[in-house]
Amino acid sequence: MQPEKAGTLIDGRKVSADIKREISEKVILRKQAGQKVPHLAIILVGDDGASQTYVDHKVKACKEVGFHYTMMRFADTISEDKLMKHIDQVNRDTDVDGFIVQLPLPDHISVERITEKIRPDKDVDGFTNRNFGSIVSKNPLLLPATPYGVMELLKRYHVPTEGQNCVVVGASRLVGAPLAMMLVEEGRATVTVCHKYTKDLASFTRQADILIVAVGKPGIVTADMVKEGAVVIDVGTTRVEGPQYKNGYVLKGDVDFKAVAAKASLITPVPGGVGPMTIASLLLNTLRATELRNP
Description:
Blueprint: E1 8-9, H1 12-32, E2 39-45, H2 49-65, E3 68-74, H3 80-92, E4 98-101, H4 111-117, H5 129-133, H6 145-156, E5 165-169, H7 176-185, E6 190-194, H8 201-205, E7 210-213, E8 231-234, E9 238-241, E10 249-252, H9 257-261, E11 266-267, H10 275-293
Parallel strand pairs: 1-11, 2-3, 2-4, 5-6, 5-7, 7-8, 8-11
Antiparallel strand pairs: 9-10
Helix pairs in contact: 1-10, 6-7, 6-10
């Protein structure tokens, strides 16, 4: 999957399918050897439509690779303490190898308290402080899923990172901050992190050999902000509504795709780029969690 021309697409759907096939083969071998099959538990609070869609995709992915899975649904009126007790139960369940609490949560529930309640060795989203901090170790436990997916895309498209100038736009705890750390630790890149307080953003993005944008602002990166031949990874996915769109809405990334693709050597589309890789990474983490506890 070497770049051939300007604007070559990084196909997240294909890479995700490749990873699922690899995982499925490993699950078959585990079954044949009488070893434990990975088991993912998913906690969903409330009836948010987007959350339900994300959960459906995760359940479908579990079925595709042969994982066991458990769905736990709770009303959005559940108290924080009661939800914590359910998490304790899953923490103690020896048959569950990994689990996630689908975000967002209702306003009366602390995301940080809930996240930190999850055992780090079962935290397959990679959200806990332990897993976040382990990125800087030589043996990280479970990596944050979306940054992990970005690193896999770079690796599988043979994008060199060592010594490259990488600019990450967005410093969130979920994507930008851990990804910057991974690019330094694993990728050995020179990394600049830009955020909402950065002055003259374009002066930084124009220097990037690898530009990664994760801020959730459609079209914030335009063609004049990208240097010729850069690799561009667009993590942002925003639902933009309007009567001009066939389904009443369209998903847009943080990058002005059509214009930037003409200058980039490689670029991810939205949708179909980083999105599918988050679920693939979740599956990889679940398999790793199983192998660590049940070699």
